[in-house]
Amino acid sequence: MTYVAKKCGICFQPPSVILIYKEDNKDKTRQRIMPVRNFSKFSDCGLAAEQLKNNPRHKAYLEGVSLHQLKKLYSLLKGHLGGESLAESLDKFRQEETIDPEEDMNKLDDKELAKRKSIMDELFEKNRKKKDDPDFIYDIEVEFPQDEHLESCGWDAESGEEI
User: What CA–CA distance (Å, rounded) separates 60 from 144?
Assistant: First the structure.
């Protein structure tokens, strides 16, 4: 039997993930409450989301829910357990999921760099035009404005020196 997820949310007291779904062949809307156990403000949200999604009792129901959404719900719960308000937790999650173009990624450790790269990969795949897309154009030519003064780069100014 397949289930179609309609909404997914988090309840703080008691900590639980709530899923509103429909069975594929019926018109009845149902609610499933999945308790969150052994989760604290020090827990890993990604690992907890993977464990819930792969749990045999909930696996069939969570097919239509993305792992990213479950991570977000767990991070909201983690913020609540840490004493943050819902708005603060949402802002913190948005800040973690966006990339600052001014940030120096050479100074990041391997774990943070891998996280930033995965965010960039997801954004690239989301914005990528495929051959099957209706607005796909094979050979795009773009004219860039030449009105502005071109800046010279400092790295090629000393081309006469030997290394």
Answer: 51
Identify the CA nearest to 42 among candidates 70, 78, 94.
78
* Burial status of residue 14 (CB atoms within 10 A of its CB: 0-12, 13-18, 19 or more): exposed
Backbone angles phi, psi at 51, to 5 degrees: -65, -40
- Tokens 């802002």 locate to 91
Contacts of 90 (CB under 8 A, 6+ apart): 76
Sign of CA pseudo-dihedral 108, 111, 117, 119? negative
Instruction: Say how far residue 103 (Cα) sits from the centre of its chain.
Output: 19
Task: Please give the Cα distance from 119 to 126 (Å, whole number).
Answer: 11
Q: Cα separation of 30 and 37, whole Å? A: 22
Kindly compute the dihedral angle of the four CA atoms of residues 59, 61, 64, 70, in this order, to the nearest 10 degrees: -70
Which residues touch 135 (CB under 8 Å, ≥6 apart)? 129
**Span 68-85, average pLDDT:** 93
Q: What distances in angstroms separate CA 67 from CA 45, 141, 143, one per listed residue?
A: 10, 38, 41
pLDDT tens digits, one per residue of 108-141: 999 889 988 988 998 898 888 888 888 888 888 8
